[in-house]
Amino acid sequence: MEASSVPAFLEMQNIVKMFQGTCAVNGVDFNCAHGEVHGLVGENGAGKSTLMKVLAGVHSPDKGKILIKGEERKFANYSEARKAGIGVVYQELSLLPQLNVAENIAMGVWPKNQLGLINWKTIKATSNEILKSIGVEIDPDLLVSSLPMALRQMVEIGKMLVQKPELIIFDEPTAPLSHDEVQVLFTLINDLKKQGKGIIFISHRLEEVLTIADRITVMKDGQKVITDTTSNFTEQKLISSMVGREISEIFPPKHTQLGQQRELFTYDGVLKRSNSMVTFSVREGEVLGLGGLQGQGQMELLHSIFGLGGCEELKISINGQVTPIKNPRQAMRHGIALVPENRSEEGVFLILSSLANLAATTLDRRQKMLFVDKSTENQVVRDMINRLSIKVTSHRQPAQLLSGGNMQKLVVGKWLIFNPKVIVLLEPTKGVDVATKQQIYLIIRQLADAGVAVIVNTSDMIELIGLCDRVLVMNHGFLTASLSGEEITEERIMEASVSNKQIVSSETQS
């Protein structure tokens, strides 16, 4: 039976949502049936998240109806939506890092014993059972703050599943996950679908939407553009529907001859993880990628460049000069920038304005006798907002009110203002739309062309292949391959990701 012919669990009719005179969602119809995966795509700011927050009770619609099993419902908050059978896994995690895994999973549904006290034995058993059902084994006593992003995402999913929802919204669930972890999640989604659950799957990774969804709805500028069965879409058709134009090239052209260019940056370090020497360099005009399965030492290596530890011994040279790096302040003094993986926790000051965020890395350059030159600061910030097309109501708007893509632009923008000599980008396009991805790709290439040493780490295989001039692959804390030109293929990267053969220098294979 076609998914669209199954009686809908959810119907949203003519939904309108306004914010201070701006129409974020404009007359949108949307539905999801039992036993179907309905993909929802669109650029950042297209209205996807707002529509889902209306469904989840976070926002009240200004117009329109929500029907659950044919009955009109109004949700004053998420608790009421949850009782109606709606579960949400948000892109920005809702976990409490200072609590352990079991406590986070039990949040809001605390089981009690006969004395009316919290039953910790049941909580631990339930958390283990839930996590095991999604293919993850984590000690329930571990603090969430000690977990990598991928495991935090799985705890977030477990927290939602313990509430036994009938319709589940997955908002960018794969952003922090490796390829293998995405497959585990897709297996889980298909199992939930077989159980008759309705699934709304939101992702900027269009190949994933085309893989997992039965139907797809495209939104643009707060309106629905099209809803159709997945078989009637291609990735190109999705992109065209999202941005309103054809996109023939995703990545900017690569440099074809880099072998004779001078070295801008060299790294010689012994990682604590493996006690192995890692040596590589970045040449003028080159974008260097760092790949491999997640958790193989990439983060330790890249964090060490910014003075965040991870190495027993470390020698860094910039433009031929040995540069001691022991902490982030020293790294910045030598012109090193880091775009972190988790923008909301590490990349922006959520409660501060867009202006304050963009100006944060260069305050000392505009100080005169303890006073900041506000006129220059305002101009620099406005220029960057215009350059990156950051959608803000004003430069005073708090960062926490921006969409994920515009928040990421703040992180990138503050380092562009900094004018770095070396820039390390960790998952630079995670959770952003196609148009913003292309903008970031172009910026990365422009930085390399301008003489900046650019190092990129991404779990998106297509991004690694399409963007980078050379790719280093890590496994068990050491380098297993250095690939360039036509060598950069998914097969070669995956082969090197599981290899136990260490290369002494990244230049030996380039």
How would you sum up this structure, described in words?
With 510 residues, this protein is of the alpha/beta class. Helix content is 32%, strand content 25%. The chain has three domains: 241 residues, Rossmann fold (3-Layer(aba) Sandwich), CATH 3.40.50; 177 residues, P-loop containing nucleotide triphosphate hydrolases (Rossmann fold); 68 residues, no CATH class. Strands 6-7-8-3-9-10 form a six-stranded mixed β-sheet, with helices on both faces. 46% of the residues are buried.
Features:
globular; six-stranded mixed sheet; Rossmann fold; 22 strands; alpha/beta; 510 residues; disordered N terminus
* Rg result: 24 Å
Major sheet details: 6 strands, mixed
Strands of the biggest beta sheet: in what spatial order? 6-7-8-3-9-10
CATH class of the largest domain: Alpha Beta
Q: Give helix % range.
A: 25-40%
Overall pLDDT: 87
What's the domain count? 3
Number of strands: 22
CATH topology of the largest domain: Rossmann fold
CATH superfamily of the largest domain: P-loop containing nucleotide triphosphate hydrolases
